[in-house]
Amino acid sequence: MRFLSIYKHVERSFPPTQEEMARMGELVEEGMKSGYLLGTEGCLPSALGARVRRSGANLAVTDGPFTESKEVVGGFAILKANSKEEAIELTKQFLQVAGDGECELRQLYEAGQDLPAQFTAKS
């Protein structure tokens, strides 16, 4: 199974320290070598981004920074795990290195995958 882990945290006004970057680099290298980490990326500050929203026929673009948000997306990882519980454990290990914040963990759809009954039943 593959899972998307979306890391959210309070945005800082300064970059990670060399020590923080080294610790994260070690975790990423270990995960890639072990085969459970399929991909990962960090995000630049929200000041460099934009949000695009659609509501009916209306499209709105809001340039960053996103000061109205308590937390911003700081990055993501694609994990390979045998179960949701294993993916949760891998995410806990990540947060031990990343620090404060939260990860939203979502299983990714794979072609041919059997979906739970509540997602296949028609209303």
The main β sheet shows up as: 4 strands, antiparallel
Overall shape:
flat
Question: Unreliable stretches, pLDDT < 50, 5 or more residues?
Answer: none
Question: On the 0-100 scale, what is the average pLDDT?
Answer: 91
Percent in strands: 25-35%
Radius of gyration: 17 Å
Write up this protein.
This protein has helices spanning 18-34, 84-98, 117-120, and strands spanning 2-9, 37-42, 50-55, 58-63, 72-80, 102-107. Strand 3 and strand 4 (58-63) form a beta hairpin. The protein is 29% helix and 33% strand. The model has no long low-confidence stretch (mean pLDDT 91). The protein is α+β, with helices and mostly antiparallel strands. The two termini are 28 Å apart. The protein has a four-stranded antiparallel β-sheet. A two-stranded antiparallel sheet has the order 3-4. It contains three helices and six strands; from the N terminus they run E-H-E-E-E-E-H-E-H.
Can you give me a brief rundown of this structure?
With 123 residues, the protein is α+β, with helices and mostly antiparallel strands. The chain has three helices and six strands.
Please give a handful of descriptors for the protein shown:
123 residues; alpha+beta; four-stranded antiparallel sheet; two-stranded antiparallel sheet; 6 strands; 29% helix; flat
